[in-house]
Amino acid sequence: MKSISKEDYLSVIYKSADSNGEIRANQIAENLNISAAAVTDMLRKLSNEGFVEYKRYKGTKLTKSGEEYARNMVRRHRIWELFLHQIVGLPWDKVHNEAHNLEHGSSDELINKLEEMLDFPEYDPHGDPIPDKNGKLPKGSSGVPLSTIDPGRKVKVNRVHDFDSSFLKYISKIGIELNKEITVVDAMEFDHSLLVKIDKKETSISSKVAANIFVTEVK
């Protein structure tokens, strides 16, 4: 049975909540690849501990203390990811799991030292913002899904989801990385897949892949 910690739940809620700070239990289950029943049990526990506001069949949101706790875990995770990528040299599809193992046993002092060593970075290897030690996030757009871009537009990759290493391996193989420019050539009405141009080469990508790549338009 897959073991999911309290920190994992809080991090997912923090990262995946909507603009109102809410997330549905089924979305948490999907992100963590576990059963809805397991999510319900944990949300009840987190609610009793004062970390979330939870009512069955309604959206869940973090309390103030829950948000502070989750933000600190996300900070630890993303700093470790960047350290493993920049200093150790691990590819971006391997840093997530390694950072997950390291984040829980690290002191705040160590994380602050790593942050200093990395020259106070603002983003991790996947383009996600890194909260500073005061919880402040860098300013700037996190982008919109590539799937929402109309044909004929040129965009730059800001961020990609890091939920699946096979997804990261795939987009690396077709030439997609942070700050890469992509031109949307065509959108298929049948399955909503996109024909895109990357480094002068045209490639077809599925709507699911496009929905997990975030971009800003190049003027």
How are the SSEs placed, and which strands pair?
Layout: H1 6-16, E1 22-23, H2 25-32, H3 36-48, E2 52-53, E3 60-62, H4 64-88, H5 95-103, H6 108-117, E4 144-145, E5 154-160, H7 165-173, E6 181-187, E7 194-198, E8 201-205, H8 207-211, E9 213-217
Antiparallel strand pairs: 1-3, 2-3, 4-9, 5-6, 5-9, 6-7, 7-8
Give structural notes.
With 219 residues, this protein is of the alpha+beta class. It has helices spanning 6-16, 25-32, 36-48, 64-88, 95-103, 108-117, 165-173, 207-211, and strands spanning 22-23, 52-53, 60-62, 144-145, 154-160, 181-187, 194-198, 201-205, 213-217. Strands 4-9-5-6-7-8 form a 6-stranded antiparallel sheet. Strand 7 and strand 8 (201-205) form a beta hairpin. Helix 1 (6-16) crosses helix 4 (64-88) and helix 4 packs across helix 6. The model has no long low-confidence stretch (mean pLDDT 92).
In brief:
The protein has 219 residues and is α+β, with helices and mostly antiparallel strands. It has helices at 6-16, 25-32, 36-48, 64-88, 95-103, 108-117, 165-173, 207-211; strands at 22-23, 52-53, 60-62, 144-145, 154-160, 181-187, 194-198, 201-205, 213-217.
Could you list some keywords that capture this structure?
3-stranded antiparallel β-sheet; 17% strand; SH3 type barrels; Diphtheria Toxin Repressor, domain 2; 219 residues; alpha+beta; 3 domains; 8 helices
